[in-house]
Design goal:
Blueprint lengths: L3 E6 L6 H12 L6 E4 L2 E3 L11 H10 L5 H4 L2 E3 L5 H7 L7 H14 L2 E9 L10 H8 L2 E6 L5 H14 L4 E9 L5 H14 L3 E6 L8 H8 L9
Parallel strand pairs: 1-5, 1-6, 2-5, 3-4, 6-7, 7-8
Helix pairs in contact: 1-2, 1-9, 5-6
Amino acid sequence: MSDGVFVTGTDTSIGKTLITASLAWKFSREISKICIMKPFATGISEYSKKFKSKDLAILSRAVKLEEKQENLNPYFHPLPCSPHMASALLNLPPPSLEHAIKKYKLLRKKYDYLLVEGVGGIMVPINDKHTLLHFIKLTKLGVIIIATPKLGTFNHILLTVKICQSSGIPIKGIVINKMPKNPSQVEKEIPIFVREYTNIPILGVIPKLNNSKINESTFSKISKLIDISPFD
């Protein structure tokens, strides 16, 4: 069994959080001490008194986790942009890569398996020296890439794959999310062409869910469509 997995995306708003939460729910059926982490998060505003990040609230719900928020989400900025840009615009100190990794290592010691969700794409700036890529490399985790079948996704997937491979980051597979109910010929063929071109497994194709409740039923439904286990 691996120690965990990092879930990244080719873009923002492509469903990374719901996929990560669904995988956490699925893996928790096989591993008792499982944890989630969202090291960097941004948004329009704070979500609730308990969770500054809505993404963290969803992730925690999937595994009914009771852990200090500052460990799971060291950095949250109430502005929907990169952590680097948000901290500058809000006149706040930029996120520290060292501090985020310190929290990551703390969680690794406490739990048997850790699912980490990124923010936006893999090259999102964290501060003026580091991107999300630097954080991933320090975790030594393999990645799952989330993409959608929208126009331009082939380019975004290939760029993400290339930067991972050139940085020595193992790729566990790709998930195509938000597939339309009635996909066009191009949308329908995207998973096939991506698999043939990259030689990376397509772990699942998830249909676009409209107004679905964020609960165990949804987590279960999505996780059944993703062919991966914590032992892969």
